[in-house]
Amino acid sequence: MADLVLRGGYLDGETVDLLIQGGQIAAIGPQLEAAGATEIDARGLLLSPPFIESHIHLDTTLTAGEPKWNESGTLFEGIETWAARKKSLSREDVMRRATTLLRWQAAQGVLHVRSHVDTTDPELTAVRALLEVREKMRDLVEVQLVAFPQEGILSFPKGAELLEEALRLGVDVVGGIPHYELTRDMGAQSVAISFQLAEKYSRPVDIHCDETDDPQSRFLEVVAAEAIRTGMGEMVTASHTTAMGSYDDAYAFKLMGFLRRARINFVANPLINITLQGRMDTYPKRRGLTRVKELWQNGLNVSLGYDDVMDPWYSLGTGNMLQPAHMAVHVAQMTGRAEVVACYDMVTTHAARTLGIADRYGLAVGRPADLVLLEAKDKWNAIRRLAPIRMVIRGGRVVAETTASRTTLLGEPIDLSAER
Ligand code: 17E
Ligand code: FE2
Predict the structure, then answer these.
(1) Per the domain annotation, does 163 fall within a domain?
(2) Is the pTM of this model over 0.90?
């Protein structure tokens, strides 16, 4: 017996039905037989695999303005502001804010989330709270946690011990922040520690790497070398890597070859890094984004994250993944026809590779019936229109619905879609 059938949705330029049985996609094709199934009218809507948030900080979310606003807009004032807010963290505080954001994300079709969690707290309050949230939310959103030493592994008292304790408590991924360690040598040493812990606990790695405009910040090459040495390749992610946007082209060219050998993933956070970086420049002012287009053209896996929703680093945000995709199109100048579509893939299929879940993700028969219906005929138009997300299905169950909005002009309905 079929559970659910979606009728007449758009998928890869075709109009199809999609049949769901036992929480899985059972068939995709034209005019499917579906006796006894609940019918859903998907005409005019794009069928998409769910959105994936590959980089966010759920412990800091929804604290913007507490205890003060970040007036300079720099990464460093963000870190200072968070250090002050961190003193008043409680289990309930972290759980309430993180749960609120995960619910916003689920309502907007984000069903997988990788969140960093600050381990530079002697009590590990946020770590313990987010481990609880991860379990509590399991039926709605799948959360991966990254142990993130915000104030350093070697530059914060007991930084390495706290990082390891977070892994022992059950955090999924090992993080790092080499560019924020006190010296270049400590930065390189910190990367080695992240990889030693990853090997010891069999965990993937996701490092905040070279999040600065300093062209001398070259920890990405250290991460690549460790990925090659350990053979961890696709289990390794370099997040931010904004210094790449300031590297000399000759160095960037050499590095690109090493990155192809290392086969690591990249996460860019265009909403946040277009605002955090370039703050020491007058004009010309750098964009401060990593080389998204060139990494993608070189066949490397690149995904996009939000990074922050309403916190000391970015006071705006909603959690809707079309926003970082839309911003990437602009900041990375990925405006070509296929490039816009690639930016959509960076918040869906490419992000699935970053999270290591590509083998159980996507709209195909036998895969989990997790999907999103958007008011657009294809990915290109979904980004252009920041299309309304009309329905979210998780494990064959409708978990979120948004009713269609309707605009009139001078009393007459007006169609604003004009899709190309
Ligand atoms: N911490 C950090 O080091 N960098 C960031 N972009 C955020 C937190 C959001
Ligand atoms: Fe981050």
Answers:
(1) yes
(2) yes
